[in-house]
Amino acid sequence: MKLFLRISLFCFIVLLAGSKATAQQTPNVYRDSVVQLYGVVMTADSLRAIPSASIIVEGKGRGTITNPDGVFSIAVLKGDRITFSCVGFKNRSIEIPLNLSENQYSVIQLLVSDTAYLPATILKPRPTREQFERDFVNNKVSDDAYEIARKNTDEAQRRILINSLPADGREAINYQLRQQANKYYYSGQLPPMNILNPAAWADFIKAWKRGDFKRKD
């Protein structure tokens, strides 16, 4: 029994020492795996710098872009896969070597132009001058800012919007507060009847002339 306890204690001490050694070595390993990647991105045909090219570390959600001279610099880890991309060029990817002896890695990345082929467009003239003039006159021109503002402030258009759009939260709470204020104002007495109010009759006549009471199909 004593021999078993001694062996168990010895194994526990060995495991504890090994875990401490691993914990002490982990920061050094992580520190040594960080690499400063820098370089320039250029075109493959004319060796011209590519500004605003994207340099993305795959699977890490990190990246950077090149400056106007095509130069970039970013901190990565050994074994990371780096993708170079830019509009009008094909993507290229590189992998940081795991056996890199230094903490700096420089590259000159060349990107090849990517040609995008669009479908063919056929331009046909009008058969006659009269048809061209007719189509030109009947062509609908988009409204400018002044015309849009005039339509938005039109009274008929505003009535249509009021009747079609639902009330938002601000209008609903204001209506509820007005109802409560009116109820508290006439608390303990009969509220007035608008059937004898000339102003209410005037509003009713204006609404009737506008057609607010017409049936909407």
TrEMBL record:
It comes from the Bacteria. Keywords: Carboxypeptidase, Hydrolase, Protease, Signal. One of its GO terms (molecular function) is carboxypeptidase activity. Residues 1-23 form the signal peptide. InterPro entries: CarboxyPept-like_regulatory. Coiled coil: none annotated. Pfam families: CarbopepD_reg_2. The keyword NADP does not apply. This is Carboxypeptidase-like protein. It comes from Sediminibacterium goheungense.
